[in-house]
């Protein structure tokens, strides 16, 4: 007793109908992929926005801490040098450090330009 395979009747579709269905499925897949990429881009945008906000707050807090540190240095030096000289010394020291940092930054930019030209 062998059983013969059952034959299921395939819908009688023309080649044109198969291609139309394939085209429709391809469009649906492409649209779904576009929506997926939009979602991913939105998630990245939110992440970048949040990172920028946190970085901006951190920079503000660092600036506030630096100002507080400089004011503390002026107050600490005032009894020894007087208020005017303490302000001058702290401001001058800050300008020297800032000038050194700017020269280092200028050197880095020059190095970068030379690397890009090569």
Look at the structure and give the mean pLDDT.
89
Cα end-to-end separation: 82 Å
Point out poorly predicted stretches.
none
Radius of gyration: 35 Å
Counting H and I runs of at least 4 residues, what is the number of helices? 2
Report the order of strands and helices: HH
Main attributes of the structure:
single chain; mainly alpha; 0% strand; elongated
Molecular structure report:
The protein has 118 residues and is an all-alpha fold. The protein has 2 helices and no strands. The protein has helices at residues 15-81, 83-117. The chain is elongated, with a radius of gyration of 35 Å.
Compile the SSE list and pairings.
Blueprint (H helix, E strand, L loop, with lengths): L14 H67 L1 H35 L1
Briefly say what this structure is.
By secondary structure, the protein is mainly α. The chain is built from two helices and no strands.
């Amino acid at each position: 007793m062998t059983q013969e395979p059952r034959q299921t009747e395939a819908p009688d579709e023309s080649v044109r109908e198969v291609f139309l269905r394939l085209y429709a499925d391809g469009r649906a897949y492409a649209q779904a992929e576009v929506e997926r990429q939009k979602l991913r881009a939105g998630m990245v945008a939110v992440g970048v926005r949040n990172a920028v906000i946190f970085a901006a707050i951190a920079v503000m807090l660092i600036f506030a801490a630096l100002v507080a540190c400089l004011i503390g240095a002026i107050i600490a030096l005032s009894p020894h040098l007087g208020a005017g000289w303490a302000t001058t010394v702290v401001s001058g020291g800050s300008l020297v450090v800032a000038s050194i940092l700017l020269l280092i930054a200028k050197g880095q930019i020059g190095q970068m330009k030379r690397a890009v030209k090569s």
